[in-house]
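Single Protein Entry

Contents — chain, fold
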Amino acid sequence: MDDYVVVNGKKLRRGYTTGSCAAAAARAAARMLFSQMPVETIEIDTPKGQKLLLPVENIEFNQQQAVCSVRKDGGDDPDVTTGLDVFVRVEPVPQGVEISGGEG
């Protein structure tokens, strides 16, 4: 992501949130589960309307599930989650959608 903001006269590279990483990984995993094709990058829209194109890592999928991750980038204002992989697993359920959290 090559987006910057100026704070106190300093040019800082923007990062993206843990939630954006989770949303991107979920979208990529769902796409892989239903298409049975690998997804190496995924685009999402942030609540502010900004488009992010994020790399997808740790890709594994079959007919029963898809697992992948998106690595958190805190930009020039990092926090403890910067550099961590945010993993998502998507599995089909009989009806509707079920969301559950894991460790972390």
Summary: The first strand starts at residue 4 and ends at 7.
